[in-house]
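Shipment paperwork, digital attachment
Item: protein structure file
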Amino acid sequence: MKRDPQSPEERPEPPPRPLLSSSPSGQAEGAELAAPVWIFGYGSLVWRPGFEFTSRKVGFIRGYSRRFWQGDTFHRGSEKTPGRVVTLLEDCGACTWGVAYEVRGEQIAASLEYLNMREAVLGGYDTKLVKFHPQEKDAEEPILALVYIATPQNPSYLGPASEEDIAAQIIVSSGCAGHNIEYLLRLADFMRYFCPQAEDKHLFSIEEALISILPCLYYTEDSLEETTSVPQKSKS
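Attachment content:
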């Protein structure tokens, strides 16, 4: 069944780090955020933004591929069994589908403070500005949107692995936000129902691998239960 990231006192203080850095498409570094602000989500933000917003649009950004290469020891995993969540990999020929949220007025500070805790602090994400292309046919120009990306320098970064190994890790991981399986299936369902024309081979291959592994786990558990429930003959 298929479910279709000099001396100390004389040394000059470094300049403050800009909130945003340049993207592969060449946006200006340290660009200022002006109202309204758009925030692009490509993982759990597509179904659970966690902040108030004015409007939302389904669409895509170019120059990135989505990968389950980021470790998670809080939301979808633990220190003992880290979960796998998505981050973005620079890929000039690719595009990643997700949801962009428009925030205005007081929503801007509130949403950025929330995301800096949820993504940048706990998850270790950098921020960039990217061009978001809405799905709707009457959209005129791309929208400049903020996105959080985990990098290989992130201490929780896990990097590449086979789809089967990623699925096996997802199956045994859960955190304060829920099981890692839920994360994978919700993301796959979003792509299937909101972006049916888009391809995400990496995502759906992991989903397929997970579904193929689950019956084996259930069979093993049932076998163990049957074994423990069978009365044992007493030794003479």
